[in-house]
Specification:
Length: 455
């Protein structure tokens, strides 16, 4: 009877887990077992009318309903509670619950809006789409437009640092607030959540802390890998998550790794993280980096040559933060020193700004290594002298620059010795030909290249 009066999803979520325990004709009492206090509360608040009608039809008007609520699965602990919709004799009106009563003054007094803690500048409009983020971005827009649907709940986004996770989850929250101003949306970092919980424990206000989070319509938590060793925080968040999930609220989580790699995270939390959508955000490829750079350059009103943009995109390791940091640094240097943004300045800034395992190899690096091997100075290599040692060092520098950087020949020639592209091409051909017939020379080139790896 119940199944015919609720949706399939409602039946599977709330009624399938119910287990019949016993029925006593003498006391007209039926006992059913439910898996948690959340299920009990939800049934009593949302389906009390339906349950009451079904019980009357099947057992008569004087039936009493009691629940055996599982409070601790591990230790098999239960608690028996009586339903509000029955009494010892005669029929009682429907229980007064939040589900079947009009709003009261208490409802009106509840805070209807909160500081969402969202960054208003991180929106879908400036979240540039590419191959690496197309799926998460599309799903994020869908969720933002229909936050009350149960599809893709929770949304678990993971990826390396700098791939745009925080921007995406902020964009979802900003769009929800724009479309549904009355929704209670909250963005919080995992670290801040943990600090708030610790303060609540110290001040004996844990219940208030939990109650507040259970009123959120869209909860967005960033960097949840911070909780991997925080057992108490995990337990508290589990109860908040469970309540929000069962009441149809939206949960969005961001992490630097997938759920299976969250060592030390509670198994019951991992199960819930995995029951919605797990979406990976990859590092942006070169084309997406170029698109991101062009968008920022346009926004900041800068003039940066295309070859410089290409060079930054190829050497900033696919990190959106690094891309923005390099552009900001270039802008600062350009303004302070009244200098045009060119390849020389970009190489210098990139070398100091981007913290990566393999820093981009610059022309200066190459010339320095070549000069060190041939025991000449960079000034001599860049000069006009035609001495044999200097010519060889100059040619080797151009050859290695062509091999290890993505700069055009014209740029290499200009930076190394003020030559044109034909000189670079000629030098590369001469070095390549000699390497084919001179094993010692080939070993020399290899030795110089090894110094690049040691830097």
């Amino acid at each position: 009877m119940i199944k015919g009066n609720v949706t399939e999803q409602q039946y599977k979520t709330w009624f399938e887990p119910i287990v019949f325990e016993s029925y006593s004709p003498a006391t007209m009492t039926i006992l059913v077992k439910v898996p948690s206090m959340f299920v009990y509360e939800y049934l009593e608040e949302n389906f009390v009318d339906l349950i009451s009608k079904v019980l009357k039809k099947v057992f008569g008007s004087s039936v009493r309903l009691t629940y055996k609520v599982v409070t601790d699965n591990t230790n098999h602990m239960n608690m028996v509670v009586q339903s509000d919709n029955s009494e010892e004799k005669g029929e009682k009106p429907l229980a007064t619950t939040r589900a079947n009563q009009p709003y009261t003054m208490l409802d009106v007094a509840q805070p209807q809006d909160i500081d969402s803690q969202l960054n208003p500048h991180q929106t879908f409009e400036n979240f540039i789409e590419g191959v690496s983020n197309k799926l998460p971005r599309a799903v994020g827009i869908s969720i933002a437009q229909n936050p009350s649907t149960t599809q893709f709940n929770p949304m678990f986004i993971y990826g390396p640092s700098g791939c745009g996770k925080t921007h995406l989850i902020n964009a979802i929250g900003v769009r929800v607030k724009k479309l549904y101003p009355r929704k209670r949306v909250l963005y919080v970092s995992a670290r801040l959540f943990q600090v708030q919980y610790t303060n609540a424990v110290i001040h004996n206000t844990v219940n208030d802390f939990i109650n507040f989070y259970q009123t959120i319509d869209v909860l967005i938590v960033d960097d949840i890998q911070e909780w991997m060793t925080a057992t108490k925080t995990q337990d508290t968040f589990f109860h908040i998550f469970d309540h929000l999930f069962r009441t149809g609220k939206r949960i969005i989580l961001a992490c630097d790794r997938p759920p299976v790699d969250l060592q030390g995270m509670n198994d019951r939390l991992l199960t819930r993280f995995s029951c919605g959508l797990i979406a990976e955000l990859e590092k942006p490829d070169v084309q997406l980096c170029i698109d991101i750079l062009h968008a920022k350059i346009l926004k900041d009103g800068l003039q940066i040559p295309d070859d410089v943009v290409q060079y930054i995109a190829e050497n900033a390791n696919g990190s959106v933060r690094d891309l923005e940091g390099v552009v900001n640094s270039l802008m600062a240097y350009s303004v302070v020193y009244n200098q045009a943004i060119d390849m020389t300045l970009t190489e210098s800034v990139l070398k100091r700004s981007v913290k990566v395992d393999n820093k981009p190899l610059t022309i200066d690096d190459i010339v320095s290594s070549v000069c060190s091997h041939f025991k000449v100075s960079p000034e001599e290599v860049g000069g006009k002298s035609r001495k044999r040692d200097l010519v060889i060092a100059r040619q080797v520098s151009m050859f290695l620059a062509q091999k290890h950087t993505k700069m055009p020949a014209s740029r290499i020639g200009k930076l190394i010795a003020g030559r044109d592209h034909s000189t670079v091409i000629h030098s590369c051909e001469k070095v390549a030909e000699r390497m084919k017939i001179d094993e010692g020379f080939s070993k020399t080139i290899a030795m110089i290249e090894n110094t690049f790896k040691l830097k």
